[in-house]
């Protein structure tokens, strides 16, 4: 059996990317949600067995998020310069090794360090997969593909808490990381034989990795790109505020079992996945940015309601669970559209653009989880306050920074892009502009 090493994107006879390839890329990115959600029900057990504080256990999540944030600025430009396939395989290999180390970790310090390195490795899959999608489509078409990919990615938050809760019936928390090692091994083998190279040599950035890194300057001076990056990043931070605190709030305050918490978290993620599929259909009728704004407005209103309810310290968990469900579901309208619109002008730097966007998300997510540990878990108010504040900031970034350019500003920006993003041929630029 031979591996797939073609340099041409895999498409159907109609010119559309194979859905199977996009779903497989989603399976690669599922390592992120799995690595986060799978072991959340084990937080109290890890704290007890390793004699660690609540804040230090949450640092294992922070370390993973920081690794994801730092790994993406490396993997993105690398994939723009040498292609997508090799960085993805390297990342999966390192992730496998770190999963084994985590399974045998003797202390909380090693656990935090190994989680950081596991995050760096996982970043290669996240950034490269997003770059591959942009290799194959642009604009609304990319939003549809990203919605399809999130169908698989969203299975991570749905299944991980449930699987984690059930695994803890059979094994200790170390068994959770052995499970991740097995998943990584399966994905590595599948990727080696089934994922082609989607970025041909003639579409890669010239001048090597150094030139690819210089494209960061173009990205961070693009008001609209920064607006979309902050919109997604702040929403991502709101979700991780929920992720970091929910296991303590649900189990510590409302006394849910690990299994019941897993079901509650899975229902929230199911709402997000359902909304991504609705979004995949709606982008055929409505502009991606309009759908994104609707999603952020819903999240902001849900955050405000959640904060108001949390201050009353309700006796039933349902008062907390319902606005959390609405907030998490709204992500399905925000993330695919935000990523697609942010990368629309950067066909040759899609890996770098996706990496910078992903890094900003995980920096914010890591900061929120670290701060959540300081807020305590005696009430749901810290969690609700972070969610309300971050969703409001996300809406502000979208309305202020990501607003469309005037005709003159658009022409000036196009001249900058042509200097750093020379088109493969003129028809490609025209097609992407229409998308």
Name of the level-1 CATH class: Mainly Alpha
CATH architecture: Up-down Bundle
Measured between the Cα atoms of the first and last residue, the distance is: 39 Å
- On the 0 to 100 scale, the average pLDDT is 78
Structure in words:
The chain has 435 residues and is an all-alpha fold. It is 79% helix and 0% strand. It has helices spanning 19-29, 31-37, 43-49, 54-82, 85-103, 108-136, 139-153, 155-170, 173-194, 208-220, 223-253, 258-282, 288-311, 318-343, 350-375, 381-400, 407-420, 426-434. Helix 5 runs antiparallel to helix 6. The longest helix has 31 residues, at 223-253. Mean pLDDT is 78; it is low at 1-16 and 422-435.
What labels describe this entry?
79% helix; 18 helices; mainly alpha; Growth Hormone, Chain: A; 435 residues; disordered N terminus; disordered C terminus; 0% strand
Topology:
Blueprint lengths: L18 H11 L1 H7 L5 H7 L4 H29 L2 H19 L4 H29 L2 H15 L1 H16 L2 H22 L13 H13 L2 H31 L4 H25 L5 H24 L6 H26 L6 H26 L5 H20 L6 H14 L5 H9 L1
Helix pairs in contact: 1-6, 1-7, 2-8, 3-4, 4-5, 4-6, 4-10, 4-15, 5-6, 5-9, 6-15, 7-12, 7-14, 8-12, 11-14, 11-15, 11-16, 12-14, 13-14, 13-16
In short:
The chain has 435 residues and is an all-alpha fold. It contains 18 helices and no strands.
């Amino acid at each position: 059996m031979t591996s797939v090493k073609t340099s041409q994107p895999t498409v159907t006879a109609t010119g559309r990317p194979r859905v199977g390839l996009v779903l497989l890329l989603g399976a690669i990115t599922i390592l992120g949600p799995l690595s986060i959600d799978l072991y959340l029900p084990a937080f109290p057990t890890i704290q007890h067995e390793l004699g660690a504080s609540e804040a230090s256990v949450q640092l294992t999540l922070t370390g993973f998020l920081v690794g994801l944030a730092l790994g993406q600025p490396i993997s993105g430009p690398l994939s723009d310069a040498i292609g997508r396939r090799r960085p993805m395989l390297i990342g999966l290999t390192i992730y496998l090794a770190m999963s084994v180390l985590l399974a045998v970790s003797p202390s909380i310090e090693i656990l935090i360090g190994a989680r950081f390195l596991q995050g760096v490795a996982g970043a290669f899959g996240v950034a490269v997969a997003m770059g591959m999608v942009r290799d194959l489509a642009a604009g609304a078409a990319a939003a549809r593909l990203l919605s399809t990919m999130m169908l698989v990615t969203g299975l991570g938050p749905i299944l991980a808490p449930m699987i984690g809760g059930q695994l803890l019936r059979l094994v200790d928390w170390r068994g959770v990381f052995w499970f991740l090692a097995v998943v990584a091994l399966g994905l590595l083998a599948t990727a080696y034989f089934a994922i082609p190279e989607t970025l041909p040599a003639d579409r890669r950035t010239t001048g090597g990795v150094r030139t690819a890194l210089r494209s960061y300057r173009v990205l961070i001076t693009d008001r609209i790109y920064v607006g979309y990056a902050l919109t997604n990043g702040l929403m991502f931070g709101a979700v991780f505020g929920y992720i970091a605190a929910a296991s303590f709030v649900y189990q510590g305050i409302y006394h849910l079992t690990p299994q019941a918490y897993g079901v509650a978290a899975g229902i929230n993620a199911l709402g997000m996945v359902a909304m991504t599929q609705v979004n995949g259909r709606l982008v055929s009728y409505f502009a991606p940015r309009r759908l994104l704004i609707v999603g952020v407005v819903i999240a902001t209103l849900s955050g405000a309601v959640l904060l108001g309810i949390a201050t009353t310290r309700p006796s039933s968990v349902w008062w907390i669970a319902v606005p959390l469900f609405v907030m998490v579901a709204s992500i399905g309208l925000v993330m695919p559209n935000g990523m697609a619109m942010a990368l629309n002008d950067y066909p040759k730097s899609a890996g770098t653009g996706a990496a910078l966007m992903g890094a900003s998300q995980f920096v914010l997510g890591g900061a929120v989880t670290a701060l959540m540990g300081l807020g305590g878990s005696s009430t749901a108010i810290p969690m609700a306050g972070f969610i309300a504040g971050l969703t409001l900031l996300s809406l502000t970034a979208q309305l202020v920074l990501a607003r469309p350019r005037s005709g003159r500003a658009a022409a000036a920006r196009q001249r900058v892009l042509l200097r750093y993003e020379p088109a493969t041929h003129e028809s490609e630029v025209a097609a992407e502009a229409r998308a």
